[in-house]
Amino acid sequence: MGPAAKLKKIFPRISTRGFYDLYSGRTIKNEPYRLYPKRDFEALIGSKEITIMIHGLRNNASAALTKFVIAKRRLAQLGYKNPVIGYSYDSNIAHAQYIMYALHALNTGIIIANKNGRNLARFVTDFKRKSPGTKIRLMGHSLGAHVILSTIKNLAKNAKNVGILEAVYFFGASIPSDALSTRNGSAAQKIVATKIRNYYSQYDDVLRVADDWNWLVTPIGYSGAYGKTISKYSQTMVKPKNHRFASYAAVLRSFP
Fold it and tell me: Alpha-carbon distance 146 to 174, whole Å?
């Protein structure tokens, strides 16, 4: 077993795999989340901060772990010394690889991603109760941005959660370009303490197709934000090779 395989095997992750139906997005298990390995999460209590990486569409459990390892390695190269953990959810939607099913798969993916906002919000509040001093940063790639946006909306239901997330980072995000406008972004402005950073690319082939075919309202990861945004939002245009998370990680120049 090489070092990468070993790292994948023990990579600390929050998982909701098997909680949602891969054909319809229907909820199968009404559980908050599962933690693997549990003792790693106990060890995180009291840490200065943690970063949670949320993968995109068409990732099975193994592919998701690969993304978490890429995130951890890239952040370490940029001098980030704090723990990085993964958030693994049902995004390996049935038939997503066939063009005739692609739109249905995307819509199912969005349903599941939005439902996962409840799960991740629950983890955040549970963890902050045990470790109130720990700052929590969220990184989301592609569909992972939907999970983050939904998490923010769920957290915003409770006034006690103001500033509960330290910062948010989007890479090739598939959420709408007006999601963080002054009109739509008030929850994010409240819940995120310091900043929401969007790395977008007009060279992103996948988001361009989704935009051209009107599968998604113009994605914020493709063209950047539309209109006046909330003050905690900022964006950086990047030139990744393609839509893959590895390509976005490669062009990331600093963190946090």
Answer: 7
End-to-end CA distance of the chain: 32
Domain 3-251 fold = Rossmann fold (3.40.50)
Q: Do 125 and 159 touch, CB atoms closer than 8 A?
A: no
Backbone angles phi, psi at 124, to 5 degrees: -60, -50
* 40-52 tens-digit pLDDT: 999 999 999 999 9
What would you measure as the largest C-alpha separation in the chain, in angstroms? Answer: 51
pLDDT in tens, 47-70: 999 999 999 999 999 999 999 999
Q: What is the pLDDT of residue 135?
A: 98
Contact 232, 182 (CB under 8 A): no
Burial string for 165-200 (b: 16+ CB within 10 Å, else e) reads bbbbbbbbbbbbbbbbbeebbebbbbbbeeebbbbb
| Length, in residues, of the chain | 256
Whole-structure pTM value: 0.95
For residue 141 the two structure tokens come to: 């790639």
Whole-angstrom Cα distance, residue 35 to residue 16? 9
Between CA 127 and CA 121 the distance in angstroms is 10
Q: What is the pLDDT of residue 94?
A: 77
Q: Which long-range contacts (CB under 8 A, 24 or more apart) does 94-103 make?
A: 94/22, 94/23, 96/57, 96/58, 97/58, 102/215, 103/213, 103/215
Spans in the chain with pLDDT lower than 50 = none
